[in-house]
C-alpha cells in the first residue's frame, strides 16, 4: 500500500482527489486548515 499526503484536503482539488485515492487503495493522510 502506498502512502500519500494531501495538503489542502478540503480545497477544490483536494475534495475530489481524496475519494479517488482512497478508492484506488492508497493510505491517505490529509492536512487542512479546516476540519476534515
TrEMBL record:
InterPro entries hit by this protein: Epimerase_deHydtase (IPR001509), NAD(P)-bd_dom_sf (IPR036291)
Domain NAD-dependent epimerase/dehydratase positions: 4-34
One Pfam family, short name: Epimerase
Protein name: NAD-dependent epimerase/dehydratase domain-containing protein
Amino acid at each position: 500500500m502506498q502512502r500519500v499526503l494531501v495538503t489542502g484536503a478540503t480545497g477544490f482539488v483536494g475534495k475530489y482527489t481524496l475519494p479517488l485515492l482512497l478508492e484506488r487503495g492508497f493510505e491517505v493522510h490529509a492536512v487542512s486548515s479546516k476540519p476534515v
